[in-house]
Every structure is written in C-alpha cells, then in structure tokens.
Amino acid sequence: MNFDNIAKLKLIYFFKSLFFFSPILTLFYFSRSLNTFQVVSLEAILIISVLVSEIPTGIFADKIGRKFCLILLILLYIVGNVWTIFAFSYIEFIIIEILFGIGIAFGSGAIEALVYDSLKCKGKENQMSKVWGSINSYMLIASVIAVTIGGYIARSHNPKTFVILLWLYTFGAIIALFISFFITESKHKKEIKKQTALILFKESTLHILKNKSLRKIIYLSLFTIPFIHIIMFLFQPYFLIAKVPNMFFGLAMAMGMILGALLMKYAYKIEEIFGMKKTIFLATILPGLFYLAMAFVIGPAMSFIWYVLLKGVSSLRDPLFSQYQNNHIQSHNRATVLSVISMITALYLAVMRLVIGKIANSNLILSFIVMGGIIVIGSVLFRIDERCIKINL
User: Fold this and answer.
1) pLDDT in tens, the chain (393 residues)
2) Which of 179, 206, 281, 325 sees the fewest Cβ atoms within 10 Å?
3) Closest by alpha carbon to 97, among 79, 72, 109?
4) What are the backbone angles phi and psi of residue 303, rounded to the nearest 5°?
5) Which residues contact 279 (CB under 8 A, 6 or more apart)?
6) Contact 40/169 with Cβ under 8 angstroms?
7) What domain range includes position 311?
8) CATH code of the domain containing 18
C-alpha cells in the first residue's frame, strides 16, 4: 500500500487518539481540587468553544488549507495537554478546555474535507464511507489499547500515575504532529482565496438551505445522535444501579470500542449486504432501542451487554453519514459547509446535554428513556432513501 494521505491519516488518528488518561480523567481533576460541578462544567465549556469556533475555523480551512488546520488541531492538543499536567486552578482548566475546543473545531470539517478531496482526485469519492470508517477505526483501536494500559498503570489511583498517563498521550500526539507535516493537499478548481469569509459562509449556508436532500440527511443525522458523550458520564452510575462489578467498567468500554471499530471499518460492506435504506435505518434506530433496553431490562449481565452494544453500534453511522453528506458538497467550500453542519450539531448537543443532565440528576433511568425515545422517533420520522444520497451539486 502506498504511503498516501489516507495511510498517513490512519497513523495520525491512531497516535492522536491514545487517550491513556480516559479511565482516570475525573479522578485527575479531583486530585487537583476540582469538585464535581467544576468537572462537569468543563465539558460544557468545551462544547461552547467548539460551537463558537466552528465557522471561523471552517472558513480558515477552505481559504488557508486543510493540512494547516490538521497541524493546528494536534498542536493545540499538545499545548493543552502539557498545560494540564502543570495546571492546578479551575481558571487554568477553563482556558485549556477553550484551547481544546478550538482545536476540535479546526479538525471537524477540515479532516473530513481533506479525505474526501484526496479520494476525489483519484476518482474514488464513492469510497468515502469505506475509507472514513477505516480511518476512524484506527482511532477506536488506539482508544482500546490506551484505556486498557491506562487503567492498569493507574490502578493504584496515585496522582503521580495520572501525570504519567498524560505524558504518554503527549508523546503519541507529537508523533501524530510529525506525520501531519507530510500530508499533501490538492488544489481546488475555484480560487477560493478571492472570496471573503462572509461570502464563503453565506454561500455555504445557502447551499444547505437550497439542497433538500442534504437537509434531509442532516435532519436524520441530528435527531438520531446517540449521545455518546452524555452516556460516557452516565454509564458508571447506571452500572452501580445494575450492580455491575467495578472491575468490568473498563472492560465494557474496551469491548464497546472494539465492536465500534469493526462496525466502522466494515460499514460499507454491511451497506452492500443490506442495502443503503435498511443499513442507515438500523444504524440510526438501534442505539435508541438499546437505550430503552438499558432502562427496562436492568441487571449485571444484561446491563453490561446493552452498554457494549450501544457503544459499538453508535459508531456504525459515522462513515455512512460522512459519505452521504460529502456527496452533496463542492470541494472549494467543503470544510465550511461541514463546519456549519458541525455548528448546528454542537448547538443541539449543548441544549440536550443540559436537558438530559437535568433529567438524569433527578431520575437516571428516565434520562435513558428520553434519549432512546428521541432517537427512535428521529430514525422513523426522518428516514431517507437512495434518492437522498445521489450527488446533487
């Protein structure tokens, strides 16, 4: 296999996703004297910073370059992570989360646009779901390895081991940064640099408003989001209710990630077997059904199984939606359009995070019913067929 952009991005995704600190991140914050509210608020600050940064970074990617945005993403991860190691105040952590949010925004549209345009140059844009799924599977594989190693290294819950895990991630991110300098970027046919940021944003927004098929895809994607970042905080208290032994918490995460990596990598094959319409329906409705199962069938074994299936199946939709959305977006403003979509998604998630968090604070099981109900209704109400994914530029 040639060491092309796709191969480089797989390695970049692997090394930048070695989150060794994931199993102990909350404990790390506690060791730095943060309380529970402050820890949860950091996630809200992250989402807000992503929301505010989406459009400017998307325009930046289209006008300056997607490769440069990728480099900035990893660089901000490294700076934020090193600062985290030496930070001790809540204010410092707030600033760090803002840096992370800006970094995420730099990558949200730029990387996907970079992949699609790399394929388009070879006349292989119809393989986006296959390639995007494969790239993201490297991220999930890295997460499985990192969670397993990180959980073992920090098993004593000694704050010194938390710092070791943060340094390990930093070294991985530095490797990813080095590889990112070797990415090549195709030139767009339009002279995008001649367009002002305002015109680029207006053009991208109008493109979404005028393209009915793209709007239907966005509606389905938005209202069937599997709330993975919310369940990440809720599955632990849920496991306590279900009496799942503590030793299986990390195992459940790892198994869910492995299943997700396999489904992402082979999403295109599943689509070939079942067809587009059935595959996207299953990919969107199954997480909702598993949320409902978690709410109504609770027990040590079944709750463990439901969570693993939920975490795994939630990954199936990503490469499919990436293919469908990019089919309707032109190359010259692809990153901006994707950033507009990401901004809409971030706004929805910011609201739902508060709503579901409020519900979970009073009744954890009810929050699972609400999430499951929204996803099931969304998957039925906004169903799409083959006509929606046909290229319409």
Assistant:
1) 467 888 999 999 999 999 888 777 777 888 899 886 777 778 778 888 888 887 788 777 777 788 888 999 999 999 999 999 999 999 999 999 999 999 988 887 778 778 888 888 887 878 887 887 788 888 888 988 898 888 788 877 788 988 999 999 999 999 999 999 999 876 654 444 555 566 667 777 787 788 888 889 889 999 999 998 788 777 878 888 999 887 777 788 888 988 988 898 888 889 889 988 899 999 999 999 999 999 999 999 999 999 999 999 998 888 888 888 877 877 666 777 877 888 888 888 878 877 887 788 788 899 999 999 999 999 999 988 777 766 655
2) 206
3) 79
4) -65, -40
5) 267, 270, 271, 320
6) no
7) 5-185+197-389
8) 1.20.1250.20
Q: Is residue 231 part of a domain?
A: yes
Please give the tally of structural domains in the chain: 1
In a domain, residue 190? The reply is: no
Rounded-to-integer distance, Cα 67 and Cα 180, Å: 7
Give me the half-sphere count of Cα atoms (radius 13 Å) on the Cβ side of residue 185: 23
Structural domain includes residue 192: no
Q: In b/e form, how buried is each residue of 169-187, taking b as 16+ CB within 10 angstroms?
A: bbebbebbbebbeebebee
206 within a domain of the structure (yes/no)? yes
